[in-house]
Amino acid sequence: MGWVESLQKAIDFMEENLLEEISIEDIAQVANSSQFHFQRTFSILTDISVGDYLRRRRLSLAAQELVNTDVKIIDLALKYLYDTPEAFSKAFRKQHDITPSEARKHKGRLKSYNRLIIQVNLKGAEPMRYQIVEKDAFQVIGVKREFSLVNDENLKEIPKMWDEVHADGTNDLLISLNDGELKGVLGVCVDNRGKHPDKIDYWIATNSNSTEVGNLETLDIPASKWVVFEVHGPMPDAMQKTWKQIFSEWFPSHQYEHAGTPELEVYPAENPNDPNYYSEIWIPLK
């Protein structure tokens, strides 16, 4: 099964089970992917998280039932997996800007989020500059945190981690320790598929041969074949745009797959707000 077909199969599975409690692990298994890689690919391509997609679809269907049937609000709350009518009403109002009672009385407009169909752009009108490289194992040193994939905690908390390392001086310390081939500060995602399928380790680190510096830890990155993408432009927009191109254009049109080992974002020690800022994305291949 191809990459695009796997993703669409997972979306179909979500649609078929909107009235059931399903986890990211369940959905990722359908796509033959780890939780982390499925969640990341989905959010990059759609600009929403898996959890947000499920919530929006359920509340869209609930709104249709409110308008077209006389089903009690308490029964709809239970049907669409809310513990109480109050929780359902709060979520409903947040999405539709009106209460369930107002919707039933046709007071106000509803928002409908339709079933998602993945459409991949394979034209490649805008060229992507990349290089395939073989690299021996190397060490990084930095700070590590474990993030849960449940309720998209990793998507919310990793940006806060970056804010903290800039504020407390850790970013400057890492730049001073950088003595390897990769220059700058690295964002390193480690998929814990084998040990903790619902968690990832995220490192903010640098390529360095140092072993012990304060509270910093070391991580060995295995020898691998890498695809290295150039990223041109200010952060974070340029990085997000390139990730979207990688998953919507590059992977579907190449025979490679993600190897499942750590992936890197490389941020040189220059002004990330500069329109000409240069950075890189390193993805291990198999």
From TrEMBL:
<dbReference type="InterPro" id="IPR029441">
    <property type="entry name" value="Cass2"/>
</dbReference>
<dbReference type="GO" id="GO:0003700">
    <property type="term" value="F:DNA-binding transcription factor activity"/>
</dbReference>
<dbReference type="InterPro" id="IPR010499">
    <property type="entry name" value="AraC_E-bd"/>
</dbReference>
<keyword id="KW-0805">Transcription regulation</keyword>
<dbReference type="InterPro" id="IPR018060">
    <property type="entry name" value="HTH_AraC"/>
</dbReference>
<dbReference type="Pfam" id="PF14526">
    <property type="entry name" value="Cass2"/>
</dbReference>
<protein>
    <submittedName>
        <fullName>AraC family transcriptional regulator</fullName>
    </submittedName>
</protein>
<dbReference type="Pfam" id="PF12833">
    <property type="entry name" value="HTH_18"/>
</dbReference>
<keyword id="KW-0238">DNA-binding</keyword>
<dbReference type="InterPro" id="IPR050959">
    <property type="entry name" value="MarA-like"/>
</dbReference>
<dbReference type="InterPro" id="IPR011256">
    <property type="entry name" value="Reg_factor_effector_dom_sf"/>
</dbReference>
<feature type="domain" description="HTH araC/xylS-type">
    <location>
        <begin position="8"/>
        <end position="106"/>
    </location>
</feature>
<dbReference type="GO" id="GO:0043565">
    <property type="term" value="F:sequence-specific DNA binding"/>
</dbReference>
<dbReference type="InterPro" id="IPR009057">
    <property type="entry name" value="Homeodomain-like_sf"/>
</dbReference>
<keyword id="KW-0804">Transcription</keyword>
